[in-house]
Design a protein that fits this description.
The complex is a heterodimer. Chain A is built from 4 helices and 7 strands; from the N terminus they run H-E-E-H-E-E-E-E-H-E-H. By secondary structure, chain A is α/β, with parallel strands linked by helices. Chain A has one domain: NADH:ubiquinone oxidoreductase Nqo5 subunit (Beta Polymerase, domain 2, 2-Layer Sandwich), CATH 3.30.460. In chain A, the strands form 2 sheets. In chain A, strands 1-2-5-4-3 form a 5-stranded mixed beta sheet, with helices on one face. Chain A has a two-stranded parallel sheet with strand order 6-7. Chain B is globular, with a radius of gyration of 20 Å. The chains are: A alpha/beta, B alpha/beta.
Chain lengths: ~180, ~220
């Protein structure tokens, strides 16, 4: 992997595309993988610039994060051609319930297709412009988004002889019907 | 079976006369060619594959012919985690197998849900939907454990009488050979288990209302 400064790349981006809203989120850990927080409306422009002008041809990972007041989507990008990376893009939704739309980057990196579906399935982020936004891990007709912290699991607890910790909690809830 | 004295049989075989019974011959044939269904669900399938290769050599027991179609298979090795999404397909595959058919539930996940038992998406044991003949614990079980399960199954097949009350399911037209395929609900499978096959374990202490195990004519209803 060649030496690579995400700050310098961000400066170049701001010089070439002055209108976009991008903010550097510093990561003070030893890995120092700083990320770019981009506004949803600028995401496609930035993504196309990264792919076409800077050679970031590989989207290795897309994941979701459930924050207390919003949902976040994180893209990890590498350049196979220049052997640099990662550039980490973050996008945030307005809130957790109503304003959960974000632009899809599948037409920039096709590799994002399945992973955006997974984020839709497990976190409930709706990707505008995704060609085939269906559930992928859970079945069609499943209700809720299980990776969210507010997801309520079905009460299918069964007796276990050595229940402890959260399983014991679940057992007591199951037997008392939620009282206590 | 009991028609001929065992010592006489041994004497006869020393003279080159082999005696046998229909039942022995039939069960010997069946147990010596248990063809498994070629299907795996998770990491246990890797151990199953290892068991079928030269080092462990499941062919010693006549079970090396992994069939790619349920129509040709005698044995379903449920090797791995059965997610709720996958469970209807597993039951459907089982239903499509011809009788006589057997099931080995391989590994912690297949017998109980294993480390995923308390999760929202994993079936807590395939015995909720299909009758299991041999359970193998382990995560994953060693190939030797699978071979032991196969030997256990062969002993079971050897002991099956062809007639009478205890005859196996495939010789008794009154017993079902297909089982209920669950459908997807909003959170769980519907039904969550086949209650004719499986009942939830009862807590020895605290469960408030006992579920009656079977409603019979003498009951309140």
């Amino acid at each position: 992997m060649n030496p690579f400064s995400t700050e310098a790349l961000l400066a170049a981006l701001k010089a070439q595309l002055p209108g976009v809203t991008v903010e550097l989120q510093r990561n003070e850990a030893p890995s120092a993988q700083h990320s770019w927080l981009i506004a949803a409306q600028d995401a496609v422009v930035v993504a196309q610039w990264l792919r076409d002008k800077e050679g970031f041809d590989f989207c290795s990972n897309v994941t979701g994060v459930d924050w207390p007041t919003y949902l976040e989507v994180v893209y990890h990008l590498y350049s196979i051609e220049k052997r640099i990376g990662p550039v980490i893009l973050r996008m945030r939704t307005g809130d957790r319930d109503k304003s959960v739309h974000l632009p899809s980057l599948t037409h920039v990196w096709r590799a994002a297709e399945l992973q955006e579906r997974e984020i839709f399935d497990l976190y409930g982020v709706i990707f505008d412009g995704h060609a085939d936004l269906r559930r992928i891990l859970m079945w069609d007709g499943f209700e809720g988004h299980p990776m969210r912290r507010d997801y309520v699991e079905p009460d299918d607890y069964e007796y276990e002889p050595t229940a402890h910790d959260h399983v014991a909690e679940r057992a007591s809830k199951h037997t008392t019907g939620g009282a206590e | 079976m009991g028609q001929i004295d065992q010592n006489l049989r041994i004497e006869l075989s020393k003279q080159g006369i082999v005696t046998t019974t229909m039942q022995e011959l039939y069960n010997w044939g069946r147990r010596s060619s248990v063809w498994p269904l070629n299907f795996g669900l998770a990491c246990c399938a890797i151990e199953m594959i290892a068991a079928s290769m030269a080092r462990f050599d499941i062919a010693r027991f006549g079970a090396e012919v992994f069939r790619p179609s349920p129509r040709q298979a005698d044995l379903m090795i449920v090797a791995g985690t059965v997610t709720k999404k996958m469970a209807p397909m597993v039951v459907r595959l089982y239903n499509q197998m011809p009788e006589p058919k057997y099931v080995i539930a391989m590994g912690a996940c297949a017998i109980s849900g294993g480390p995923f038992k308390q999760g929202y998406n994993v079936l807590k044991g395939i015995d909720r939907f299909i009758p299991v003949d041999v359970h193998i614990p382990g995560c994953p079980p060693r190939p030797e454990a699978l071979l032991h399960a196969l030997i256990t199954l062969q002993k079971k097949i050897d002991g099956q009488p062809l007639t009478g009350e205890d005859r196996p399911r495939h010789l008794n037209a009154d017993l079902p050979s297909e089982f209920l395929v669950p459908t997807y609900g909003p959170n769980d499978l519907i039904p969550a288990s086949n209650l004719t096959l499986w009942r939830p374990p009862q807590s020895p202490v605290a469960e408030p209302a006992e579920v009656p195990l079977a409603t019979n004519a003498e009951g309140q209803k």
